[in-house]
Amino acid sequence: MRSEASKRIFALILMLMVVAAAFLLLQRKQPSPTEVVEQYFAYWNEKDTEKQNTLVAERIQSSGTDEAYLECVELLSCDAETRQDKLEGELERIRENWEPDASYAAVVYVTYDIEYADNASRTNGLENGTYDWTFWLARQSKDEPWMIVAYGV
Q1: How many CA atoms are closer than 13 Å to the CA of 19, on its beta-carbon side?
Q2: Which of 45, 49, 81, 146 is deepest in the core (most CB within 10 A)?
């Protein structure tokens, strides 16, 4: 009898551990839009195009051709838009231009320095210097990670 009771208790404990682990996995926090953009720049500076492309929509992924000439890229500032009226307008812009199924939008403003090797031939049109860019991010649900859907001046 003890053996049967021990088996049931063990099974109950095991089941509770599985439920607790599943709950913890579901509660895992997704990176904020600002954190996604910061990671994008970290990968860019590391010349890791493969990881960089995991953060952006497929249609704007980098080929990595210019990274061979990259000396460094330094993110100087990274600030998310917080005004709700502005974000609602940007969500409409994202739906119209880039991601028709987006339910959530984020806008991140960055300033960064970039430096390439002298006389390097580049396809991205960037020269050595400081740039102010805007990043647009979207996702379909609160459980999905943010994806960069567009960026530029």
Answers
A1: 6
A2: 146
Instruction: From 17, 44, 18, select the one nearest 113 (Cα to Cα).
Output: 44
Cα(95)–Cα(125) distance, rounded to whole angstroms? Answer: 27
Q: Among 45, 120, 44, which residue's Cα sits nearest to residue 53?
A: 44
Dihedral angle, C-alpha 62, 63, 65, 67, nearest 10 °: 40
Hunting for tokens 């530029």 — which residue is that? Answer: 152
Element (H, E) at 5: helix 2-26
The residues with which 134 forms a beta bridge, in sequence order, are 109, 152
* Residue 91 Cα distances to 96, 100, 103, 118, 147, angstroms: 9, 10, 7, 40, 13
Please list, in sequence order, all residues whose beta carbon lies within 8 angstroms of the beta carbon of residue 47, skipping any fewer than 6 positions away. 64, 67, 68, 70
Q: What is the DSSP letter of 54?
A: T
pLDDT digits (tens, 9 = 90+) for 46-92: 999 999 999 999 988 888 777 888 899 999 999 999 888 888 888 88
Displacement of CA 142 from its chain's centroid (Å) = 14
**pTM, 2 dp:** 0.76
